[in-house]
Structure formats: C-alpha cells, structure tokens
Amino acid sequence: MKRLHFAFGLFAAVACSGLQAQTPLRANIPFEFRMGQTSFPSGEYVFEPSSHILVVRQTEGQHSAVMTLTQSAWRLNKPATSIVEFNRYGDTYFLSKLWIQGSTDGEALPPTSHERELARRMAPIRTEAIALKTK
C-alpha cells in the first residue's frame, strides 16, 4: 500500500510540474483586438501563460479578462524578448501566439470561426508582433 501511495504521489508531482505559472508579462497594445469571442480596446494588458492556458487581463478601464486554452507552437529561433503576435485582417486583429524570451516553444490560440471567415475573404493575413515586458 505504501508503494501505491508513493507511486501516486510521484505521478501527481510529475504531472503537475508543468502547471507552474510563468511570470506575468505586460504590453501596451495600440489597437483593438479579439481573443475568442471577446473584443478588447487598445491599452495596457497583462498576459499570463500557464501550461496551455492563457489569461489576458486589461489593467486599466473596465479591467476585462479572458482565459482560453492554447496549443503548443514552435519556432526555429529563440526570441530575444517575449512577444505577443496578432493576425491582422484589414482593421481587425486576433491574438494568435505568445512567445517566451529564450525559448523556441510558444502558445498558439486556435482561430475562431469569425477569424477563419475573414481569412477566406481577405488575403494575405499580416502578422503584428509586440514585445512584452515582465511586470
């Protein structure tokens, strides 16, 4: 029985080791953007990635916040600073990826049906990148 408890405890520790939160990141976004079904005005935001979950909070104004599931993303080179990327269709921006300084791994937000529709009608999409700062 002790072995079973030890094995379960070890499994729980390993499984939860990836759940440790990253340091919150902050950026001034100069345009209105969408994340899922939520539209955010331009302004100061905090981005909190944590094991395939991303929380985005507005720091001023109405203090809106959204949490969403993300997918793993990968790039060839490690960014010198943390970066948040947006897909742009005309004047409409969608949060698409978050890259952490010094890592080739990132988080990607799956496109919504609205974004996929805009992508079908407009070509090509543009990507806008904004550097993030630690709090």
Describe this structure in words.
The chain is α+β, with helices and mostly antiparallel strands and 135 residues long. It has one domain (21-134). It has two helices and twelve strands, in the order αββββββββββαββ. The protein has helices at residues 2-16, 113-121; strands at residues 25-29, 33-35, 38-40, 43-49, 53-58, 65-69, 71-74, 83-89, 92-99, 105-108, 126-131, 133-134. β2 (33-35) and β3 form a beta hairpin. The model is unreliable at 1-21 (pLDDT under 50).
Coarse shape: globular
State the strand order across the main sheet.
6-5-4-1-12
Number of helices: 2
The count of domains is: 1
Portion in strands: 35-45%
Work out the helicity level.
10-25%
Q: Provide the gyration radius in Å.
A: 17 Å
What is the makeup of the main sheet?
5 strands, antiparallel
* SSE arrangement, N to C: HEEEEEEEEEEHEE
Layout: helices, strands, pairs:
Elements: H1 2-16, E1 25-29, E2 33-35, E3 38-40, E4 43-49, E5 53-58, E6 65-69, E7 71-74, E8 83-89, E9 92-99, E10 105-108, H2 113-121, E11 126-131, E12 133-134
Provide keyphrases for this structure:
12 strands, 44% strand, five-stranded antiparallel sheet, 135 residues, disordered N terminus, alpha+beta, globular, single chain
Describe the structure in brief:
Helices cover 18% and strands 44% of the residues. With 135 residues, the protein is of the alpha+beta class.
